[in-house]
Amino acid sequence: MTATSPDPLSDPVFALHEGGKLEVRSTAALRDAADLSLAYTPGVARVCTAIARDPALTARYTWTSRLVAVVTDGTAVLGLGDIGPRAALPVMEGKACLFRVFGGVDAVPVVLDTTDVDEIVETVVRIAPSFGGINLEDISAPRCFEIEDRLRDRLDIPVFHDDQHGTAIVVLAALRNAARLTGRALGDLRVVVSGAGAAGVACARILMAAGIGDLALADSRGIVHAGRTDLTPVKADLAATTNRAGLTGGLVDALVGADVFLGVSAGQVPEEAVARMAPKAIVFALANPDPEVDPVVAHKYAAVVATGRSDYPNQINNVLAFPGVFAGAFEARATTVTERMKLAAADALAAVVADELMADRIVPSPFDSRVAPAVAAAVAATAREDGVARA
Fold first, then answer.
1. Which of 4, 36, 171, 267 is least enclosed, having the fewest CB within 10 Å?
2. The sheet that has 159-161: what strands, in order across it?
């Protein structure tokens, strides 16, 4: 053990994780032979036969209607990077805990010992009959985009990549409230997004769909614009729909006069760049553990500051979104999660604290009991409006 390695014998984190964080409990009482004959053979055969005749009964007579598979290949885990499926398992167990505690939804971690896109897609398709929804987690870009798209095409249950859409929903909710707090609308804002990975792409897309004034996306090579010849298909699509001002150059150049900085990368932003933003600036520096802009620096120039950390106000935390999204999708027995369902989730989340806004309160606490029910109700209603509900 090195000098900086944690000591499992004294570290309370290891004590909490010992034996894992999940277990399976029976909802059926098994007190005697009569109970056993109902829960298992011979009684269970009648249910199996009924489902064989009508597969739609699966949702009613099994737990699939409330069960999510939390799927990862361990290639982009938190801020740890490509640590592999086994090392990713504690995070996936934690995600399953969050589903249950905050959304009343059951979830099972599924870690895959492959990074091949075809193998991941085929594996998830084949295990999908056991689940009511698929939550993709911590899969590196750009593979995550193709994996999600292909699974959405092949499955008739919700497929949701939380690193993309969970982040995007909470960011949109927070930005709606930050704009309102500073006397503006989304259409008044020019946003600069640092990072063109899963979260950055999804945030750009949902902000454009919500009617943001303008948005420039920056990757490690500078602003994404139509004149660049090194763009992936995903970035090329964004180049055609964002950056109406035609900005070129780097992130620092784009920040001059910008209303909003949204950081979803690990790159640090110099103080002088933040100082050149517009009055009443909004800074969302979401990198963990080190925000792209130090919060102390950000507060010198910004009217509203948010981070991804729990020890600062305005934490942009995905747990504000995904439990309610799946709870709502399950309530409606939705076949997919539409773009309008994501927008509805963001609107509902923003509304939870709309009458309580302060500079340090633009999103609710994860422990606010209003959050998941509000998001779930909005998602379920929109699923029915969009014609993707089966209930």
1. 4
2. 106-111, 67-72, 133-136, 159-161
| Angle at 128 (CA atoms; ends 154, 103), nearest 5 degrees | 110
Q: Is residue 29 part of a domain?
A: no
Tokens of 319: 């747990």
Map residue 6 onto helix, strand or coil.
Answer: coil
> How far is Cα 265 from Cα 204, in angstroms, rounded to an integer?
14
Please tell me the predicted confidence (pLDDT) of residue 3. Answer: 46
Residue 66 domain boundaries: 54-157
pLDDT per residue as tens digits for the range 212-229: 999 999 999 999 999 999
Classify residue 278: in a domain, yes or no: yes
Matching residue, tokens 């999510």: 68
Q: Specify whether 261 is located in the same domain as 361.
A: yes
The CB-side HSE value for 39 (13 A sphere, CA atoms) comes to 11
Q: Which residue, among 107, 118, 166, has the nearest Cα to 324 in the 3D structure?
A: 166
Q: How many residues does the chain have?
A: 391
CATH number, domain with residue 370: 3.40.50.720
Tens digits of residue pLDDT in 274-310:
999 999 999 999 998 899 999 999 999 999 999 999 9
Is the Cβ–Cβ distance between 315 and 308 less than 8 Å? yes
Q: Are the beta carbons of 274 and 298 closer than 8 angstroms?
A: yes
What tokens were used for 183?
A: 């006397």
The 8-class DSSP code of residue 186 comes to G
Q: Which are the catalytic amino acids?
A: 40, 95
Residues 215 and 364 in one domain: yes
Six token digits for residue 99: 């589903």
List of E strands, 258-321: 260-263, 281-285, 302-307
202: tokens are 């999804």
- Answer whether 299's CB lies under 8 Å from 133's CB: no
CA–CA distance, 188 with 172 (Å, rounded to integer):
14
Domain match, 140 and 167 both: no
Rounded to an integer, what distance in angstroms lies between the CA atom of residue 223 and that of residue 99? Answer: 36
Closest residue by Cα to residue 232 from 138, 140, 343: 140
Q: What is the mean pLDDT of residues 323-335?
A: 98
Task: Look up residue 200 and give its two tokens.
Answer: 């950055």
The pTM is what? 0.94
